[in-house]
Amino acid sequence: MRKIRVRLKEKSYDILIGSGLFQKSGRLLKGLGLGRDAVVITNRRLLNLYGKRLSGILKKSGFTVNFQIVPDSEKAKSSKIVESVLNRIAAYDKYRTIFLVALGGGVVGDLTGFVASIYKRGVPYVQIPTTLLAQVDSSIGGKTAIDLPVAKNLAGAFYQPRIVISDVSLLKSLPRRQLKSAMAEIIKYGVIKDKKLFEYLEKNYPRILNGDEKALEHIISRSSEIKAGVVAKDEFDNKGLRAILNYGHTAGHAVEAASAYSGRYDHGESVAVGMAISAEMAVRLKMLRRKDGLRIVSMIKRCGLPVRVKGLNFSKLYDSLGHDKKFIRGKNRFVLPVGIGRVKIVEDVPKRVIKEVITQHLV
Predict the structure, then answer these.
(1) pLDDT of amino acid 181
(2) In whole angstroms, how large is the CA radius of gyration of the chain?
(3) Alpha helices, DSSP H, located in 7-105
(4) Helix 351-360 and helix 267-284, axial crossing angle in degrees, nearest 10
(5) Are the C-beta atoms of 335 and 345 separated by less than 8 Å?
(6) Which DSSP helix (H) or strand (E) runs through 336?
(7) Of 153, 94, 95, 104, which is closest to residue 125 (Cα–Cα)?
């Protein structure tokens, strides 16, 4: 087992990474002083896969267990679902000391964290991410949110989990599309901060996509280390340091919004397109060598991820881009690569460049 500490003073917590940690989760949670009653938020598929097992594990450690089921899609991150979950928890929460458990991917984690942050003005929650995407990214850092119709993640809060338990063996149940999708975030970490990680991906992506646990543990650990380090320096994203984690996400979120969160392009696939768009912007602005831009795009393609989108309307995509919450003072704001392992935050990219690059990435 590998342990990574997210250092946030009194809100510090551990990320645990290894195989078989799910079976130990009751013991791992017992010493955290969370409460006695676990409310597990998950979806129907994961309840069928892991619900009975998790219930037994937690009860053996002295917890009571209640499951709350949410839809298995981005549509779960809505105000309607939040209200429903809050009402169900409130009805259950009588003479109890509850804490929440996010059992699932990024959608479940975002929703659970947001609900935890607002129920009774904050109750403890823990993350047990079941997807590679969640294990390397969304379960770490305390960004919780739900979507609004005009754009993704517009309503949210910073609220840290008490622990993240990343069991590599849970990834065996992942559909191949989700495994490939997660590679977008891992490529992101290589581009923004770690050339060696990027080179590791270039050499080992077939092993990762084939579910090699040793390779998976390595990339999850390194990605978690990078994110934990950035979050520790800029927890609330107000120093400009955490913004580098948004590489590929500005255009990526616009792709998701423009497709009405239909699932045509999931989060990782959308970020992959966003990274390709940002790399091309950097090349056109003469910030990135063409060969490095091609290297990034090649890595994305080799992982089976898209670099262009089909069937999306330019106006919808461009309009969604304008709603991005990372834009400040009326100016656009992009994270652009200046090399493998280095990025720069650039404001006020010429609209002509943005429009031309987006058009280039529509099919």
Answers:
(1) 95
(2) 20
(3) 25-30, 44-46, 52-60, 79-92
(4) 130
(5) yes
(6) strand 333-339
(7) 104
Which residue has tokens 């792709």?
Answer: 255
Three-state DSSP state, 361: coil
Give the angle subtended at the CA of 15 by the CAs of 74 and 126, to the nearest 5°: 55
Long-range pairs for 230-238: beta carbons < 8 A, 24 or more residues apart: 230/193, 231/6, 231/8, 231/140, 231/141, 231/142, 232/6, 232/7, 232/8, 235/8, 235/11, 235/142, 235/158, 235/160, 236/158, 237/143, 237/158
CATH code of the domain in which 197 resides: 1.20.1090.10
| For residues 221-248, average pLDDT | 95
User: Number of folded domains in the chain?
Assistant: 2
Residue 343's domain comprises 176-360
pLDDT band for position 325 (50/70/90)? low
Instruction: With beta carbons less than 8 A apart as the criterion, state whether 47 and 69 touch.
Output: yes
CA distances 47 to 20, 91, 170, Å, are 18, 21, 13
Same-domain pairing of 168 and 180 = no
